[in-house]
TrEMBL record:
The name this protein goes by in its record: Alpha/beta hydrolase
GO MF term set: hydrolase activity
Pfam families, per database record: Abhydrolase_1 (PF00561)
Keyword match Oxidoreductase: no
Source lineage: Bacteria, Pseudomonadati, Pseudomonadota, Alphaproteobacteria, Rhodobacterales
Keyword terms: Hydrolase, Signal
Originating species: Paracoccus methylarcula
Range of residues in the leader sequence: 1-18
Occurrences of domain AB hydrolase-1 (ranges): 44-156
Length: 291
């Protein structure tokens, strides 16, 4: 894999003190932002956003809390945010390759991974297939496979003619949520708002595919983990319990009165994320040095 860094100054729209660059991974540029300074003394946090989102939209409110005492890396995945789409599907494997490519470019051996929704799926993918790069994992609103999702949501993904019930409509992104996503494409993506629908189609192809991991694969995850969902999430609570029971030593957090679309705004979440990281480092002191 050929890697090099280039400054993407024309695409940078960042919170104060963030450094935005791209890493070239297998011939395409993957954009990331870095908050703080990478040192050998602190393992960074790696943030993985949800589908149709970007680093800023998903994590802007949480980055200040997470970056108080350690560096934070946010990656815009293929077709999202500042990262242009390229030929080929969006898969968990391709996103894993891109994510590890950014860490390689930054010379980061290991990171505390926090992923939401699609990013939580990617976090599980990293923990299963590259556990040596994961200091801890928090998978927010992510499931093991389609069986862990609300059945009607899976049916909606597979059948575009399905009319959603009022109960599921309450849980879906609102017009305001879609407007924010569209604005993200307009302001950040090299393809502009026109890149939104093609990416949606690629993500839908992923979601209706046979993605996921076996219980045996999850049971072999060797890293400290936390499974976090809302009590009215896209992920069934019983499935979150299954994940926490299957991944050795995993914590389980089910936040009350919380949906898939509101969980990142939950007041309790920042402290939960920091506690998972701090406990992982207290139990495994070697995880506090990443480079």
């Amino acid at each position: 894999m050929r890697l090099h860094l280039t400054v993407a100054a024309a695409l940078i729209v960042l919170p104060l003190h963030a450094l935005g660059e791209t890493a070239n991974v297998d011939g395409h540029e993957v954009w990331y932002e870095l908050h703080g300074e990478l040192t050998a003394k602190q393992t960074p946090v790696l943030l993985l956003h949800g589908g149709m989102m970007n680093t800023e939209l998903a994590w802007a409110e949480l980055i200040p809390a997470l970056s108080q005492d350690r560096p934070v890396i946010g990656i815009d995945q293929q077709g999202h945010g500042h990262t242009a789409d390229h030929e080929g599907p969006v898969t968990l494997e391709t996103m894993r390759t891109d994510t590890l490519g950014v860490l390689d470019a930054l010379r980061v051996d290991k990171a505390h991974v926090i992923g939401f929704s699609l990013g939580g799926m990617l976090g599980l993918e990293l923990a299963v297939n590259a556990p040596e790069r994961v200091a801890s994992l928090t998978a927010i609103s992510a499931s093991q496979n389609n069986d862990g999702m609300l059945p009607e949501l899976v049916e909606m993904n597979r059948n575009p003619d399905h009319a959603p019930s009022p109960e599921i409509v309450e849980l879906l992104p609102s017009p305001k949520d879609f407007l924010e996503m569209r604005r993200g494409f307009e302001e950040q993506n090299p393809g502009g708002s026109g890149a939104m629908v093609p990416l949606m189609k690629k993500l839908n192809a992923l979601l209706i595919s046979d993605w996921g991991w076996s219980d045996e694969e999850l049971a072999a995850i060797p890293v400290p983990a936390m499974i976090a969902i809302g009590d009215r999430d896209f992920v069934r609570p019983a499935h979150a319990v299954h994940l926490a029971e299957t991944i050795p030593g995993a914590w389980l957090t089910i936040l009350p009165d919380t949906t898939h679309m509101t969980i990142l705004d939950a007041p309790a979440l920042p402290d939960l994320l920091k506690r998972r990281i701090e406990t992982a480092e207290a139990d495994n002191p070697e995880t506090s040095a990443s480079q």
